[in-house]
Amino acid sequence: MTKRGRGRPRREDYLTTTRAAAYATAAGHPLSYKTIARLFDAGVLQGHRTPGGPRRILRDSLDNFLATTLDNPERAL
Fold first, then answer.
1. Per-residue confidence at 69, pLDDT binned at 50, 70, 90?
2. Is 70 helix (H, G, I), strand (E, B) or coil?
3. For a Cys-Cys bond, which of 3, 19, 31, 52 suits 15, CB 3.0-4.6 Å?
4. pLDDT at position 1, please?
5. Dist. CA 32–CA 24, nearest whole Å
């Protein structure tokens, strides 16, 4: 992850739910934006909500989820 001062993630390190779904699909794991939102709401994916309410998913959290859960058939959902 690329970070700027004080170890905080940069704006580019976050994805909207739609972009996170496209990112996962491009990685070979077709997930809908609704699934991404549900995973975020369940605490599986890390990120934050903007003041207006939209979710921002931390790219590293999504990468970790894809690698540990979806790439490992024994731990599949």
1. confident
2. helix
3. 19
4. 47
5. 9
Please compute, for residue 18, the number of CA atoms within 13 A of its CA located in the half-sphere on the CB side.
Answer: 1
Residue whose C-alpha is closest to residue 14's, from 32, 31, 6, 2: 2
Kindly provide the b/e burial profile for residues 24-44, where b requires at least 16 CB atoms within 10 angstroms of the residue's own CB: beeeebebebebbbebbeeee
Tokens of 23: 């990112």
Q: Is residue 69 part of a domain?
A: yes
In a domain, 44, yes or no: yes
Full-model pTM: 0.80
The enclosing domain of 32 has a CATH number of 1.10.1660
